[in-house]
From TrEMBL:
The keyword Calcium applies. Residues 84-501 form the Sulfatase N-terminal domain. Signal peptide: none annotated. It comes from Rubinisphaera italica. Keywords: Calcium, Hydrolase, Metal-binding. This is Arylsulfatase. Belongs to the sulfatase family.
Length: 841
């Protein structure tokens, strides 16, 4: 210890320490050019077969005293030498004809930059829906294989549809993390089950539980970009409060840039994997005013969606991203009204809708460009593999032929809101006052040269994306085109091969199922630019519409449901009750020439292949229902409960984990104490500005309010302010329908039925009113169930602004739900209706 005392006192004379002591402190690293085994700085790669890697055997020497012992530290695990950084970008609800990189009119210079320094891919495919594609993307397996046959909000109790990624199919985040990468995820999740999204977890299916050390984003399928339900890791955050003009698109890029710089300054030699998944261009389309003005001044859409489609088609041929002989199918007059048949008011509204969508897309690409520029500024662009996938499915048509100022209305069966009604929001379209979506006519144009949309798994408009990949250290064919058939399940194998990391055999002791995708690394070499695709067979299925790609052929079902037709009677036999079409994609790039009539044997052969693939990858049982699955029972934390009691304020409980009062009778009772100064504030609310309910005190008066899709607000209100002291407030609602159970029979007769609400104060009726229609499916699902205040947006801006805390003392809040049950007679009637419907088909 004498030496340390002398140093502390500032002694300058030389100090002589024993060699053994120096070795104990430094692992002898002072004498080495590279860190030796056992030193604190030592590193190692692993074979990757077992994750996490087993602890190495202690390599030091232990004697009775430290001076005679030799310390030893386990080496830090690092990826193989020259393994690249990885930036994986996937945008949302964006079809083949959206980005300028592939002939679109919307400027996407960041994607252009990646393509010009690397490669364009014009033949990559999705699953036709968002979270199924994302589950496939992060696992390298088909979406049914990992439980995501549909989105989690539609999950059902079958392995291919339960929205639970199984433990024998580890994500790319987990694999790279255990091999020494820094892993992070920004933006949209939607791979956490809706019934496991609360602050109680479990968190194994959150990004941080799937191998991503850092998460900044939203858990559900969409988000209000102005006031999102936002999380950092598993903690809800509100960075937008008090910041007018704050927008998640920019904030997310800012957070990613901060993360990358912090990591680079802390540990510059540690490779990173960033999954960057912005909410754009999923509805609501929420760009900043600046970007709306930029796009408006470009006058890209003044001639309508038909002319836009033709322009994109010509651009694509000029760029060579589609073959010169590609056909463009006629405009679908039976599905969407031609532009010249629209009224002047319709055209005006539709142009506003699409300018906001285009602004959202361009704004998003600009912010992606800032992240890419940060990597270059760090000096790491050369060895960074950037994969930029445009869209997780085709462009969304869920706004219906007319568009909508409120996407939540679509999910509740309102998809043809009159244009004159929508014009009320014309001046605020895309602002925080709307949850907007555009007309499906634009969606059809943005999927050029293909037809149909998101949700349509049998048409290339729903499943064909495009992609740009750059890796300057490896890819030398700058600006090259790659036309090999590929799918999002090919991305994980590509990343692993690029990093020199094998698929693990076990993770946490659990044997892993093999990857189902095929690496695209062979396409990086110019000599393989025209090489045959190594991905030869791929099935597609989404809500009963299906297809099979096999060696250039595409067998597909004829579209029998537009995406906005979610509430009809579902096809009872989606495997066989279909009109089958056949295409030779080697000769017919746009899937325009149906040759089924000339090839019955080929159809039979390919259907047998589809059935084999469906069995292999958990596609069965196929289910063509859409809306019905939104209200199907699933194992959330409220399952089986009819009474809920709360005694303290609580906020942030997501819709999938909160008590649902839809299609039910219910009673809400609040025991409160009003102080001498009076009281106001929120007692209980669920949902927000675009759909929900609230029970609150307004200037001392009790209020219960239903916000019906921002189209109507029904209010029960007491006439008098509550006097100081204890009070019991009660809202009792008697529902007249049969409840969600009717959806088992694909009948909507029991949903959205009338009901009568009675508001009481201390046992006395103060307001009674009948609701002629109720909400059938969902509230605003990026909002939450709050007690004692209101987070994010309020259900009635005219009455209050969040957080609107309750200034009375909440003693007890009780919610009782009486869900209607189907009687034997009801079941017989619905079964008969189903049989009659099937026979009529």
């Amino acid at each position: 210890m004498t030496a340390f005392i002398q140093i502390a006192r500032g002694t300058i004379r030389p100090l002589f320490l024993s060699i053994a002591f120096v070795t104990m402190l430094t692992g002898n690293c002072l004498a080495q050019k590279s860190p030796p085994t056992g030193s604190p700085a030592a590193t190692t790669t692993i074979d990757g077969k077992q994750l996490p890697a087993p602890d190495p055997k202690f390599g030091g020497v232990i004697k009775p005293d430290a001076l005679q012992s030799k310390p030893w530290w386990a080496p830090r695990i690092v990826p193989p030498q020259d393994a690249p950084n990885v930036l994986l970008i996937i945008t949302d609800d964006s079809g083949f004809g959206v980005p300028s990189t592939f002939g679109g009119v919307i400027p996407t210079p960041a994607m252009d930059r990646v393509a010009n320094s690397g490669l364009r891919y014009n033949n990559i495919h999705s699953t036709a829906l968002c979270s199924p594609t994302r589950a496939a993307l992060i696992t390298g397996r088909n979406h049914h294989s990992v439980g995501f046959g549909v989105i989690s909000e539609q999950s059902t109790g079958f392995p291919g549809y339960n929205s639970i990624i199984p433990e024998d199919k580890a994500t790319i985040g987990r694999i790279l993390l255990d091999n020494g990468y820094a892993t992070s995820w920004f933006g949209k999740d939607h791979n956490t089950p809706a019934f496991a999204a609360s602050q109680l977890g479990p968190f194994d299916q959150w990004p941080t539980g799937m191998g991503f050390e850092y998460f900044y984003g939203f858990v559900g399928g969409d988000a209000n970009q102005w006031q999102p339900n936002l999380f950092r890791n598993t903690t809800q955050i509100y960075p937008f409060v008090g910041k007018p003009g704050w927008n998640l698109v920019t904030a997310m890029a800012d957070d990613a840039i901060k993360y990358l710089n912090h990591m680079n300054q802390t540990m510059p030699d540690k490779p990173f994997f960033v999954k960057y998944a912005p909410g754009a261009t999923h509805a609501p389309h929420h760009p900043t005013k600046e970007w709306v003005e930029k796009i408006h001044n470009m006058h890209l859409f003044d001639e309508g969606y038909g002319k836009l489609r033709e322009q994109i088609f010509e651009n694509q041929k000029k760029l060579g991203v589609i073959p010169a002989d590609t056909q463009l199918a006629p405009w679908p007059n039976d599905v969407l009204k031609p532009w010249d048949q629209l009224t002047a008011e319709e055209q005006k509204l539709f142009i506003k809708q699409v300018e906001v969508f285009a602004a959202f897309s361009a704004y998003n690409d600009h912010e992606i460009g800032r992240v890419i520029q940060t990597i270059e500024d760090m000096g790491k662009l050369e060895n960074t593999l950037i994969i930029y996938i445009n869209g997780d499915n085709g462009t969304s048509a869920e706004g219906g032929p007319l568009g909508t100022p409120n996407e939540v209305a679509f999910f509740n069966g309102i998809n043809m809101m009159p244009v004159e009604e929508q014009m009320k929001w014309y001046d605020v379209w895309g602002t925080e006052e709307t949850y907007n979506h555009m007309s499906a006519g634009w969606s059809w144009a943005f999927d050029t040269p293909f037809t149909w949309f998101k949700q349509n798994a049998s048409k290339l408009g729903g499943i064909r994306q495009n992609m740009a990949i750059s890796w300057p250290a490896r890819i030398k064919d700058k600006g090259g085109m790659r036309e090999q058939f590929c799918h999002v399940i090919d991305i994980v194998p590509t990343i692993l091969e690029a990093a020199g990391i094998p698929e693990p055999e076990t993770v946490d002791g659990i044997p892993q199922q093999p990857m189902e995708g095929t690496s695209l690394l062979y396409t990086f070499d110019k000599k393989n630019a025209k090489a045959p695709s190594q991905h030869q067979t791929q099935y597609f299925e989404m809500m009963g519409q299906w297809a099979l790609y096999h060696e250039g052929w595409l067998l597909s079902t004829k579209v029998n449901r537009a995406p906005w037709e979610a509430f009809g009677v579902a096809n009872p036999d989606p495997l066989n009750n279909q009109i089958l079409e056949l295409y030779n994609l080697n000769e017919d790039f746009s899937q325009s020439n149906n040759i089924a009539g000339k090839n019955p044997d080929k159809i039979k052969e390919l259907k047998e292949v589809f059935i084999a693939e469906a069995k292999k990858y958990q596609v069965f049982p196929m289910d063509a229902s859409v809306a019905g699955r939104l209200v199907a029972p699933r194992p959330n934390i409220t399952a089986g409960r009819t009474e809920f009691v709360y005694t303290l304020p609580m906020t942030g409980l997501p819709q999938g984990d909160s008590p649902s009062i839809l299609n039910s009778s219910y009673t809400i009772t609040a025991d409160i104490t009003v102080p001498e100064s009076g009281a106001e504030g929120m007692i209980l609310t669920s949902g927000g500005r675009f759909c929900g309910y609230g029970f609150y005190l307004l200037k001392g008066k009790p209020v219960f309010l239903w916000n019906l899709l921002d189209l109507q607000r029904i209010k029960w209100e007491g006439k008098d302010a509550l006097a100081p002291g204890n009070h019991t407030l009660e809202f009792d609602f008697k529902y007249e329908g049969l409840g969600a159970g009717t959806l088992m029979f694909n009948s909507m007769s029991g949903l959205a039925r009338p009901g009568t609400g009675i508001l009481k104060v201390d046992g006395k009726v103060v307001a009674t009113q009948k609701m002629e229609k109720t909400i059938p499916m969902i509230l605003q699902w990026d909002e939450s169930f709050d007690i004692g205040s209101d987070t994010l947006t309020g259900v009635n801006d005219a009455d209050y602004q969040p957080p609107f805390p309750l200034t009375a003392k909440l003693n007890k809040l009780t919610l009782k739900i009486d869900r209607p049950q189907l009687s034997p007679d009801d079941i017989k009637k619905l079964e008969a209706a189903m049989r009659n419907n099937k026979s009529s088909e």
